Every structure is written in structure tokens, then in C-alpha cells.
Amino acid sequence: MPKHKNRTLGTRTLAPETLMMGYGYDPALSEGAIKTPIFQASTFVFKSAEDGKRFFEVAYGLREKDPDEALGLIYSRINNPNLEILEDRLSVWDAADRTLVFSSGMAAITTAVLAVSRPGDIVLYTAPAYGGTEYLFDRILPRYGVEARAVPAGEGSAVLNEAIQTAAEDAAVRGGRLAAVFVESPANPTNELVDIAQTARDLAALNQAERPVLAVDNTFLGPLWQRPLALGADLALYSLTKYVGGHSDLIAGACMGRADIMAQVAEMRTIGGSMADPHTAWLLTRSLETLHLRMERSQVNAITLAERLTGHSKVVEVLTAGGALASAEQQRIFAEQCAGPGSTLSIRLNGGEAEAFRFLDSLTLFKLAVSLGGSESLASHPSSMTHSDYTSEAKARCGIGDNLVRLSVGIENVEDLWVDLAQALDRI
């Protein structure tokens, strides 16, 4: 094992936050620079024609890579030093066989779904989900002969398993497969949880020649507070724009998981050209060094604010993953698969859209903007913003009312944030 990819020190297995400082990077290859330089290059020089031949054989799947063979640098659409270092470090957190980084979270999701599905297949997904994800499933995939079916996230494993069985049977009748089950847990923006381990067991027991891929959007809690791959998922997906990037200054995504499935995703990324650029990869590598500090501080702040918001006269309900008001099943799932609730929560206010808008317009420290997981605190109105393309029926089914406000809690002083929320609530 090369020294820069050593995960142990003597008999001790090093923690991910320690490995974020240097894992996958050899300073000797970059003039001794302690931090990774930006490799702003489109193409790379081969030492010999034989090297070029060998590199392309592996890159295009003409032969299997030898166990100790590195994928040679060819062209930045295929690989780039900044991408490789970042992907190595991201793999550490989730113990993934392989990680691929993309130009956006939606690029990661789209590439992965297209890689594992074909015309005639069915894809199941849990709702509510990020608006772009639902748009892809409901409006784009059907154009390519792939049917998408939504299953309410909060209705439990039995309902999801019934949908899995039905979808597999329906797909078989028309010569297709249940290609994948896509889970967003916690759900956006209601924080409802899906039992990932139980879903994995249900798929393993399915009477289908090819086991469907279980993919989990882990943006809300990962990689600190939830590890889908350890729970039986095949793929974990991220909007790296959020917590991993953490500074609201880049757009990127990631897909990681089992080697055989990731090979399919890698093929689709290479041909589709949806990888992140070297500078974005460099920024993300920088951000990984403080990821645990930022996520820990944000979560402590969010827990404090959720406790104070609960029972406030202007707040009907506080929605957190596995929260005190969640059902017994939701609390069980949280206890079994989550290490913390994260720092994105939603509140239902007394009133409707007018009261929600008055609250949002009165905030000072919480910025009125979509996205989440940055160092700063944000507030948004899902019904009219991120989930505005939902029908009124879909909003009602998913619990996205006009009185729902989503809060992404940052790393500011928590007492200052509370004063901001309190004064805005007073103006409703």
C-alpha cells in the first residue's frame, strides 16, 4: 500500500477526519507542496506509447486493471489528479469501493439512474424528494421508456415493500425489470426517514434475476450522521454543494458504492462528460478538512433551536429526523440508522403562505435562499420555491403546506440565531 493511502498507524485505524488532511496525496509528486495543487490541464503526457495503450485499455474496459495498477492519467474528462484525490477521500467516509464526483448533485443522480436502467424498466422513488430529482423521474425518464413510481416516504417499510413487489411483477410482464429503488432519507423537506436496511433486505428477497439497485440520497445527513452503504445500500449519492462543500461557493455532486455498479456509472460519466472540473475538486478537497467541525457545530445549533421552537405559540410543529413528535417507527429507524439529526429542519407555522412570507421577510441573520448545508443559516419556502412544480394534491400527500418553512442552520452563534427567529415569529 503506498504511504499516502495508508489508513493505519501501527495497530490503529485512523479516523476519517484525520485522513482528510492528506489521504490520497503524495507531496513528492508535486514539488513538496503540502496541499494539493490545482491540476488545470485538459490532457496528460504519456511516458511511452505503451503506457498510452495500457491506460486506454483500462479506461475503456478492454481489460481489467491489475490489483496494484493505478488508472493512468489520460484526459480530464476521464480522470484528473484533483478528482482522484477528492474521490479517494470521499470514499473514506462511507467505506465505498469507489467514488465519482460530478458537476452537480443532479448530474450524479441522472448519470447513476441512466447507467442502471433501460427502456421497459421501472424505478421506484420515495417522496417527497428534492424537486430536481422528482422532475427527472416524473418528466424525463418516461421519455426514454423508463417508468418512475413514487412511494410516500413516511408510510413505512411494509408499504414500500408492497410497491417493490408490484413494480417487479409489472415490469416483468412487459419484459423489463425493477431497475432501482431510489431513497431520499431524510426526505426533503419533511425529514421523514426510510428504513434503508429493511429495504435492502426486501430487495435481496425479491424474485427477480437481477437484484434492483438501492440508491440513497444521503445529502441531509451524510457522511457524518448516516452511512447508507453500511446499511446495505448499493449507491450513496450527494449534492456536494451542501455540507461537503459547505461554503455556498460551488456546485458539485458525488456517487459512491459497490465496484461493479460504479463501473457502469463511470462508463456513463466518461461518455456523458458530467465530471467536476479541477478547481471545483480542489475546493472540495479543502472543505473536507473542516467537514466534521462544521457539521458538528451546525447540528448542535440546530438541536438547540429545534428545542426552543417546539411549543412556541406561533409554531404548530417542528420537523426533525426522528424527533420527539415523530412516530414510534420513525424514532426506531432513527435510532438504528442515524448518528444524529443533522442541521436542516422544517417548521409549520400558524397560518398559511401570508404568515410564512411575513416570517421569512422579517429574518435578518437567516438569509432567504434555497440550498442548505452552508456555513451560513438559510431559510426557504418549499411550497413556492424548491417544490413549486408539485401539484396541490402531491403537496398535500407529502405534507408540504403553505405554512411550511425549511431552515438550514449554520455555524453562527446560536443565541444570535435564536434572537433572529424569535423576532421574526413575533411579526407573524
Task: Set down the secondary structure blueprint.
Layout: E1 8-9, E2 12-13, H1 16-19, H2 49-59, H3 81-94, E3 98-102, H4 105-116, E4 122-127, H5 131-140, E5 147-152, H6 157-173, E6 178-184, H7 196-204, E7 213-217, E8 235-239, E9 253-257, H8 259-272, H9 278-288, H10 291-309, E10 315-319, H11 328-337, E11 344-349, H12 353-362, E12 367-368, E13 378-380, H13 392-398, E14 404-408, H14 414-426
Parallel strand pairs: 4-5, 4-6, 6-7, 7-8, 12-13
Antiparallel strand pairs: 1-2, 3-9, 8-9, 10-11, 11-14, 13-14
Helix pairs in contact: 3-9, 4-8, 6-7, 12-14
Distinctive features:
single chain, 428 residues, alpha/beta, Aspartate Aminotransferase, domain 2, Aspartate Aminotransferase, domain 1, 2 domains, seven-stranded mixed beta sheet, five-stranded mixed beta sheet, 14 helices, 14 strands, 15% strand, globular
Question: What does it look like?
Answer:
The protein has 428 residues and is an alpha/beta fold. It has helices at residues 16-19, 49-59, 81-94, 105-116, 131-140, 157-173, 196-204, 259-272, 278-288, 291-309, 328-337, 353-362, 392-398, 414-426; strands at 8-9, 12-13, 98-102, 122-127, 147-152, 178-184, 213-217, 235-239, 253-257, 315-319, 344-349, 367-368, 378-380, 404-408. It folds into two domains: 81-288, Aspartate Aminotransferase, domain 2 (3-Layer(aba) Sandwich); 291-426, Aspartate Aminotransferase, domain 1. The chain contains 14 helices and 14 strands. Helix 3 runs parallel beside helix 9 and helix 6 runs parallel beside helix 7. It is globular and about 70 Å long. It starts with 7 loop residues before the first strand and ends with a helix.
